[in-house]
Design a protein that fits this description.
single chain, mainly beta, Membrane-bound Lytic Murein Transglycosylase D, Chain A, 4-stranded antiparallel β-sheet, 3-stranded antiparallel β-sheet
Length: 496
């Protein structure tokens, strides 16, 4: 006997590929013609960021940029500054992905080394870690209907990673020095930090608001090479275009600094009392959608033997948005005795799951006056841990809210980092889907009533299936309120 059936196909985005890749890059930089010769380098820092990531022709194509920032003394012991931009590309083989595949990429700096070749050229080596995750659609064929069958339907809540987006917010800000400040002789260091304020999502668009702060060190126009500092904060916003997102979706935005440039200007006369800073803030966003759908997980045909086939649907379950504010105390031992701190720069990487913890790396650079009145800099790093809150995994972003410090000895500095972590926390599990039922022979006559010795936590559905009965009839016959047996019981099994 042929039973009429109906089939469908469930599509879910799944994580197909996740790995960390070490990236080593070497650059040879020539000092710009308008800059003085290099006599001694105080600080050589770099940071890398991703401009775009795409999948094409069985390759993951990653394009990014590295900014190198140099503070140095010239032969007259005057402080100078130069910066350089270098683009990079990384191609990673990626087979068997569909046209729906997309990738999320983050990069974290490890260290920067340099070597002075001559007074006009330095070689720079950078080391970074690229974290790459690829998502793609997976199709699960399943049975939708079958004549004269009993199908077990369950409503299951889950979430999908639906899209990834990398955008940038360009800025160009101008501000004046405080009224009692001396004019700028040279800008010798520039740093920027940014943090997320809020996001709002409508169909195919997301509004992102960001708070940014730039900090600069500069020398003033006297012979002492005295160093002053200035900072300026401003807000930025950007509408991100992303097809397939809609109101109610969840976004996790990682905000980081891209390039930053600066120049001093005269507001009137010939005094350089105005600073212009321009550059870009990188916005790396993952979009998540929560849904509740009905799935058919099992089935049988009453009065007939039947054979079921199944597939395993991988889902993100029990997900929820979480946030955590944390104040971290980080001791740093400098290489020279400290006369005064000029600037503390901190860059946070996106948190990753490690040993049931969320770990974010803080890259720290301290610029300070040493005891012999020479400007020095030291770079180090520390890890900041956040609670995974009992979940299996999370998609997260971290931002720096504030930094302060105390000098704890001749060479010691205690940093106090105030950071925010936001993320979507979830578990990973598999759901059994019914793919098909193959009907067998008709069963022989059975009694109209059968007795079953049910154990605690037995499923009424499984009992009904094993006796070729009906779940609702069993619950009604035995006055059961739940579909799970609460204690060892003797059940009456009616015949269908």
């Amino acid at each position: 006997m042929e039973y009429e059936k109906a089939y469908s196909c469930i599509e879910k985005n799944e994580k197909k590929f996740a790995k960390s890749i070490d990236i080593e890059m070497d650059f040879s930089e020539s000092i710009p013609a308008y800059c003085d010769d290099v006599f001694r380098i105080v600080k050589c820092n770099s940071h890398s960021f991703i401009n775009s990531v795409s999948i094409s022709d069985n390759e993951i194509l990653i394009f990014g940029k590295t900014e190198i920032m140099l503070t140095y003394y010239n032969e007259n012991s005057c402080l100078c500054y130069a910066d350089f931009d270098e683009e990079f590309q990384k191609n990673i083989p990626a087979d068997n992905f569909t046209d729906y595949a997309f990738a999320k990429a983050d990069i974290s700096d490890k260290y920067t080394n340099f070597r002075i070749i001559n007074q006009r050229r330095i070689d720079v080596h950078t080391s970074s870690v690229l974290s790459l995750t690829v998502y793609d659609k997976t199709k699960y064929p399943c049975l939708n209907a079958c004549d004269n069958s009993k199908l077990n339907k369950q409503n299951i809540k889950s979430a999908d990673i639906i899209a990834s987006n990398i955008s940038k917010i360009e800025f160009d800000e101008e501000f004046s020095l405080p009224a009692d400040s001396q004019p700028v002789k040279r800008i010798i260091s520039a740093d920027c930090s940014a943090s997320l304020i809020e996001t709002k999502i409508i169909k195919d668009k997301a509004l992102v608001k960001v708070d940014a702060e730039v900090r600069l060190l500069y020398t003033v126009g006297d012979d002492s090479e005295s160093i002053q500092s200035v900072s300026n904060s401003f807000n930025l916003s950007k509408i991100i275009e992303q097809s397939s997102i809609e109101e109610g979706d969840i976004s996790i935005c990682n905000v980081s600094v891209g390039t930053i440039y600066n120049k001093s200007k005269a507001s009137s006369g010939d005094k350089l009392d105005t600073i212009e800073v321009f550059g870009e803030i990188e916005i790396n966003t993952i979009f998540i959608r929560e849904t509740e759908k009905e799935y058919i997980t099992d089935g049988y045909i009453p009065k007939r033997s039947s054979e079921c086939s199944y597939s395993e649907l991988k889902i993100i379950s029990n997900g929820r948005e979480e946030s955590e504010n944390k104040v971290s105390q980080i001791p740093v031992e400098l290489s020279d005795e400290i006369k005064g701190i000029k600037d503390v720069g901190v860059n946070l990487s996106s948190p990753v799951v490690r040993n049931r913890k969320l770990v974010s790396k803080a890259d720290i650079t301290i610029i300070y006056d040493s005891e012999n009145d020479s400007l020095k800099a030291m770079s180090t790093s520390a890890e900041i841990e956040y609670d995974l809150k009992g979940f299996d995994n999370a998609v997260c972003a971290a931002s720096l809210k504030s930094v302060d410090y105390t000098i704890s000895g001749d060479k010691g500095v205690n940093l106090r980092l105030n950071t925010d972590m936001t993320g979507y926390f979830y578990n990973e599990e598999s759901v059994q889907l019914l793919s098909d039922i193959i009907e067998g022979e008709e069963q022989k006559e059975v009694p109209s009533l059968t007795i079953c010795f049910a154990k605690q936590n037995d499923s009424v559905w499984n009992i009904a299936k094993s006796f070729s009965s009906d779940e609702e009839m069993i619950m009604k016959e035995n006055n059961l309120q739940k579909d799970i047996i609460e204690k060892d019981s003797i059940l009456i099994i009616p015949r269908v």
